[in-house]
């Protein structure tokens, strides 16, 4: 069900910045995001967004194999209708959520073993800037929490094999350092989806 929208270690660090997000900040901004996640003992990486060669971006099935290159997905094939913007307590089909990413959304995912107290803290984080933010359980993460976004240059999206960049961080817990890293991530990537959808169209309760 949808919640109401109002309401130093380098352990495991994977800071692979393949391509910086055009329109989503400078390389120094991205390096700061990576540093913040490292301080929180999270993994972080940026990958080239992709879909299978010759395949469409939209797929008609909600159960198809979408060949995502991160887990949870940060880019790639997705369902033609995105999910209604909000913060959910029941898992939302990721094939819809990837479409929210394409529209510029920053997605928070958490596993089935994450305590409800932590989920409440994630909801509070979401409520700080709900437009273009989204929350959903992702059971296979177990006790971990992830945040993802999809960015890109709208001027040549889907041209000559270009689909932008996917960004993902996975964290073992939600601490003050994690919150700081999440805020850096949201500041840099929110509202910079490859389709160029404005944040005004990504407000809580809005949908297809």
Structural account:
The protein is an alpha/beta fold and 208 residues long. 24% of the residues lie in helices and 18% in strands. It has one domain. The protein has four helices and eight strands. The strands form two sheets. Strands 2-3-8-7-5-6 form a six-stranded mixed sheet. The protein has a two-stranded antiparallel sheet with strand order 1-4. It is globular, with a radius of gyration of 16 Å. The model is unreliable at 3-23 (pLDDT under 50).
Sequence-ordered SSE layout with sheet pairings:
Layout: E1 2-3, E2 15-17, H1 27-39, E3 43-48, E4 87-88, H2 94-102, E5 106-110, H3 116-128, E6 133-137, E7 145-151, E8 165-171, H4 176-189
Parallel strand pairs: 2-3, 5-6
Antiparallel strand pairs: 1-4, 3-8, 5-7, 7-8
Helix pairs in contact: 1-4
Write a concise synopsis of the structure shown.
By secondary structure, this protein is an alpha/beta fold.
Key attributes of the depicted protein:
globular; two-stranded antiparallel sheet; alpha/beta; 4 helices; six-stranded mixed beta sheet; 24% helix; 208 residues; disordered N terminus
């Amino acid at each position: 069900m949808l919640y109401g929208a109002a309401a130093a270690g380098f352990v495991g660090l994977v800071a692979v910045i393949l391509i910086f997000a055009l329109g989503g900040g400078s390389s120094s901004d991205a390096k700061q995001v990576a540093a913040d996640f490292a301080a929180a003992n999270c993994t972080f990486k940026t990958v080239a967004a992709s879909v299978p060669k010759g395949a469409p971006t939209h797929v008609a099935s909600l159960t198809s194999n979408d060949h995502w290159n991160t887990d949870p997905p940060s880019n790639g094939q997705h369902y033609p209708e995105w999910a209604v913007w909000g913060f959910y307590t029941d898992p939302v089909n990721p094939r819809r959520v990837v479409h929210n990413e394409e529209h510029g959304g920053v997605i928070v995912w958490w596993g089935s073993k994450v305590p409800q107290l932590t989920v409440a803290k994630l909801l509070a984080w979401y409520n700080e800037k709900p437009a273009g933010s989204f929350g959903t359980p992702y059971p296979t993460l177990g006790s971990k929490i992830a945040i993802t976004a999809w960015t890109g240059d709208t001027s040549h999206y889907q041209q000559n094999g270009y689909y932008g960049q996917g960004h993902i961080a996975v964290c073992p817990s939600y601490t003050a350092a994690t919150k700081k890293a999440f805020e850096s991530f949201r500041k840099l990537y929110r509202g910079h989806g490859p389709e160029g959808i404005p944040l005004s169209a990504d407000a809580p309760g809005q949908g297809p």
